Amino acid sequence: MTELSRGVRLGVDVGQVRIGVARSDPHGVLATPLLTVARDRTAAPDATPTDLVELAALVAEHEAVEVVVGLPVDLAGRHGPAAVQVKAYADRLADVIAPVPVTLTDERMSTVVASRRLAERGVRGKRQRAVVDQAAAVEILQSWLDAQRRRT
């Protein structure tokens, strides 16, 4: 890759209860929080969960050229059960939003970093829980964007 292609990217932090979403500017410089989507655990096995439908709508609305999903690896870099679940979720998302590519990226410590940054800004308690998933998605996407720019 010689240059990060232009276009909005969405960053996604997949949690058990909520999914944080961030978006980049079209130039791939800055990630900003977008929203939090409730995880749908009630969908029938053959139905598309509402969270995937909402993410697909965001991809269309923002004309995203790529979706970057944080992969929770442990501190030693191994893929545990959480990483397996997120990989399966990302595969399902890729099916729903095709042909827009879904990229997995190491999200080690993104939620911890996001929580710390929010706390440093005075955001705590219920207010923090409401936005920490978005902040983690920003961390994931911003790290990925920075890594892509370093490669060019």
How would the blueprint of this fold be written?
Layout lengths: L8 E6 L3 E7 L6 E8 L11 H12 L4 E6 L9 H17 L4 E5 L3 H11 L4 H27 L1
Parallel strand pairs: 1-4, 4-5
Antiparallel strand pairs: 1-2, 2-3
Helix pairs in contact: 1-2, 3-4
Distance between the termini: 7 Å
**Number of domains in the coordinates?**
1
The total count of strands amounts to 5
Helix/strand-derived category reads: alpha/beta
Approximate helicity band: 40-55%
Going across the biggest sheet, name each strand in turn: 3-2-1-4-5
CATH class: Alpha Beta
Can you write the helix and strand succession as a string? EEEHEHEHH
Q: What is the CATH architecture term?
A: 2-Layer Sandwich
Mean pLDDT, as a whole number? 87
Account of the protein in words:
The chain has 152 residues and is of the alpha/beta class. The protein is built from four helices and five strands. The protein has helices at 50-61, 81-97, 110-120, 125-151; strands at 9-14, 18-24, 31-38, 66-71, 102-106. The protein has a five-stranded mixed sheet with strand order 3-2-1-4-5, sandwiched between helices. It starts with 8 loop residues before the first strand and ends with a helix. The mean pLDDT is 87.
Describe the structure concisely for a colleague:
It contains four helices and five strands. The protein is of the alpha/beta class and 152 residues long.
Q: What attributes does this structure have?
A:
152 residues, 5 strands, cytoplasm, single chain, globular, 5-stranded mixed sheet, EC 3.1.-.-, Putative pre-16S rRNA nuclease, Nucleotidyltransferase, domain 5, 4 helices, alpha/beta, nuclease, YqgF
